[in-house]
Amino acid sequence: MSIMQEESVKKTDRFQQLACIDEKRYDEMRSHNAAVFLLEQEKVRIMREKHERKQAEAEKQEDERILAIDLEAVTPAQRNS
């Protein structure tokens, strides 16, 4: 009878160890996924800022092109557009 009790205790200990390992693995995966999510958010933020800067630069270049036009040298139709 004591051999069966010892085996039962060993199995219980082993299951507890496995449960602890699984819990640690789950916590590590959750932490990793949270870190990946934060990195992806940062990547999106950087891409958005880069796009906004590129758009602002294009608008600035268009404004400079328009300001550089000599109104005395263009036709009246071109002045209106």
Automatic annotation (TrEMBL):
Coiled-coil ranges (or none): 39-66
Keywords annotated in UniProt: Coiled coil
Superkingdom of origin organism: Eukaryota
Name of this protein: No apical meristem-associated C-terminal domain-containing protein
Organism: Eragrostis curvula
Keyword Coiled coil: yes
Species lineage: Eukaryota, Viridiplantae, Streptophyta, Embryophyta, Tracheophyta
